[in-house]
């Protein structure tokens, strides 16, 4: 199909307008979530806050539940992209907890949570059928699968997931709920001390030897 220059400009303008509208709706949702509970948020409040009409909102989302899923997925996608920076090789063999690559990974993880603290806090406080911490755990399990780490586990994967991924993300959850009582560096030190033995002693993975 052939598009002339004017068609391309029109399409680009339309796409930009759609993105701006979606951004406005999502930002309005976050603002309302910061102010109160999810249950009290309505489509009417979101549309008013975003300065769009109801029909515009429904062109993008079926209801507020779908919008919640969208903002959760945005954050989870960023989380996954950041988490994937750690090479699988670091997790498959004995490692030094002070190894620069692993140290950098921990730092990026903690800083990501800290930078998005308000969002994590708001989502972790959301009640009902939407459990954000479970979605975080599922995201990490997907990463393990993609890195083929589950194939090398020395114990049943359901226990490994519970022990390691569950511990890490529940530590993060506790840190968020405490309103970041510790600094990122202090929390990083706590996290390393609790999680590093799993890897340094090669407790989770079969040895190649």
Automatic annotation (TrEMBL):
Residues annotated to bind DNA: 42-61
Annotated keywords: DNA-binding
Sequence ranges assigned to domain HTH tetR-type in this UniProt record: 19-79
Classification via InterPro entries: Homeodomain-like_sf, HTH-type_Tx_Regulator, HTH_TetR, TetR_C_Firmicutes
Domain of life: Bacteria
Protein name: TetR/AcrR family transcriptional regulator
Species in which this protein is naturally found: Weissella thailandensis
């Amino acid at each position: 199909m052939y598009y002339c220059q004017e068609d391309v400009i029109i399409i680009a303008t339309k796409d930009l307008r759609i993105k701006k509208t979606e951004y406005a709706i999502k930002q309005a949702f976050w603002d309302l979530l910061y102010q109160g509970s999810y249950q009290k948020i309505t489509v009417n409040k979101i549309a008013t806050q975003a300065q769009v009409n109801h029909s515009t909102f429904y062109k993008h989302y079926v209801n507020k539940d779908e919008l919640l899923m969208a903002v959760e997925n945005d954050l989870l996608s960023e989380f996954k992209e950041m988490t994937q920076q750690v090479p699988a090789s670091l997790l498959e063999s004995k490692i030094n907890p002070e190894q620069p690559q692993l140290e950098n990974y921990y730092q990026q993880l903690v800083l990501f949570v800290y930078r998005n603290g308000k969002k994590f806090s708001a989502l972790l406080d959301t009640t009902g059928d939407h459990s954000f911490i479970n979605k975080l755990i599922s995201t990490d399990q997907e990463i393990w699968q993609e890195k083929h780490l589950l194939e090398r586990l020395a114990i049943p994967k359901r226990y490994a997931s519970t022990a390691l991924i569950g511990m890490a993300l529940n530590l993060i959850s506790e840190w968020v709920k405490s309103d970041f009582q510790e600094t990122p560096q202090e929390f990083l030190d706590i996290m390393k001390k609790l999680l590093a033995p799993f890897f340094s002693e090669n407790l989770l993975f079969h040895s190649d030897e």
